[in-house]
Amino acid sequence: MPSNTPKEISFTSEVRVRFAEVDPLGIVWHGNYIQYFEDGREAFGRHHGISYLDQKDSNFSTPIVESKCEHKLPLTYGDVATVKTTYVDCEAAKMIFTYEILNPQGQVVCKGRTVQVFVALGGELSLVIPDFFIAWKKKVGLLDG
Amino acid sequence: MPSNTPKEISFTSEVRVRFAEVDPLGIVWHGNYIQYFEDGREAFGRHHGISYLDQKDSNFSTPIVESKCEHKLPLTYGDVATVKTTYVDCEAAKMIFTYEILNPQGQVVCKGRTVQVFVALGGELSLVIPDFFIAWKKKVGLLDG
Amino acid sequence: MPSNTPKEISFTSEVRVRFAEVDPLGIVWHGNYIQYFEDGREAFGRHHGISYLDQKDSNFSTPIVESKCEHKLPLTYGDVATVKTTYVDCEAAKMIFTYEILNPQGQVVCKGRTVQVFVALGGELSLVIPDFFIAWKKKVGLLDG
Amino acid sequence: MPSNTPKEISFTSEVRVRFAEVDPLGIVWHGNYIQYFEDGREAFGRHHGISYLDQKDSNFSTPIVESKCEHKLPLTYGDVATVKTTYVDCEAAKMIFTYEILNPQGQVVCKGRTVQVFVALGGELSLVIPDFFIAWKKKVGLLDG
């Protein structure tokens, strides 16, 4: 029985705002959210076995080709934010993640999305989903084994 | 005689890739492009009289509420990239900039877009275009004086 | 009964190396250790009640006036390092911390030292130890109450 | 006729303070001076033919093993600082640089020093001065040719 909703897997992690990440206006400089997304994506990856180092072991890297960030509220020094990272499955040779960052009060401060492609060790873009990622999809239940 | 094309003003600046901006894969880490956009926007602002410090003198700040980045090609250490920053006029109380970053060979490595809003000194979001920004639009020819 | 050994208090925390902190040589860029020192100092501060925010509540900031860093071994991506932060008591109006950063194998990769001074809210350097810091020294047993 | 003063070569460059380099106190975060030192050292290196890329062409890297920084005055957003980088010759297999950073008023805001060693491509520390660096010393007049 087919489903039209995209299959998703999430993981929630925390990031503590660093003093040097806060700008003269007293709020986290917007560019640092890209780092928070990466922190969330790598926490997801370590938990689900698909981190940068797992990819490297499979002789692939997955450079970001698109990123997007919407800022709703500021974070400030002292905040420990929650990063909810969601892998959004697709049929293309891509990895898509969405992010929701919440402040200590549970309000969404930022939403984002990144798209990654697969590049083999030699530098060649993979036009098909690499075997290691097919295997990962099966392992986590996104594909029938 | 009305025009449907948005009015735009551009400025071109340069950014030299720093060693610490390059990641273990030997390319500029994607999050650093947000900094390059800001470098371009501030170079535009200094040239056209609408930089962060000009805004501050008018008792406003203009936090980023949206940013978007598309990566086409990598930059690496030793590259001096060109940043073309374009102010895209709109009727809302917003500042929209687009960015094109070119490598030393003149190829587009990255395209981006940011949206900023106007916040008064006390922290209140301005729902109308502040006077200083109306004055700036007139000065640079985006509005009839 | 006088003691010639300086009185010290330590705290141990962890820092996970971020991908963007690693340079093209595959090792943590040396400048990032200053951030790791701050991470350690703030973890110490939160534990012992003398963090940046505690100082701010007392209307003081404590800018760094000296920092020193000796690198023994590299850290790389995937490493979770241990930061041992030690407050070294002195009689001057200063805060001195030393740092030892250890890799996952327990080897010292980096040693450091920072010196901070006390600046009152208005911007004036304090030539004497501020009351809040005297109170803190008593609280943690560095001064007789 | 021998000289007791160390032989030195200097180069002066500029660095523009970035918004994201300024902390909530409105001054450049102290850790960013390590980046300014590197900016100065690389500007020196490009001018005198001994930059990171020149070293790499000779199959060597020169990791920092010591760095030191003394802060005298703050820098703030809008400042274009001057970095005076001085190579201080020594007989060991080391590269020693000192730094003086001046604010737009010409006051010294920061002084620093870094020590680098020579590591061959394979990762081995060189206990003697590599040939390419001997050649460089001759070229710039620090050694008789």
Automatic annotation (TrEMBL), chains A, B, C, D:
<comment type="similarity">
    <text>Belongs to the 4-hydroxybenzoyl-CoA thioesterase family.</text>
</comment>
<dbReference type="InterPro" id="IPR029069">
    <property type="entry name" value="HotDog_dom_sf"/>
</dbReference>
<protein>
    <submittedName>
        <fullName>Acyl-CoA thioesterase</fullName>
    </submittedName>
</protein>
<dbReference type="GO" id="GO:0047617">
    <property type="term" value="F:fatty acyl-CoA hydrolase activity"/>
</dbReference>
<keyword id="KW-0378">Hydrolase</keyword>
<dbReference type="InterPro" id="IPR006684">
    <property type="entry name" value="YbgC/YbaW"/>
</dbReference>
<dbReference type="InterPro" id="IPR050563">
    <property type="entry name" value="4-hydroxybenzoyl-CoA_TE"/>
</dbReference>
<dbReference type="Pfam" id="PF13279">
    <property type="entry name" value="4HBT_2"/>
</dbReference>
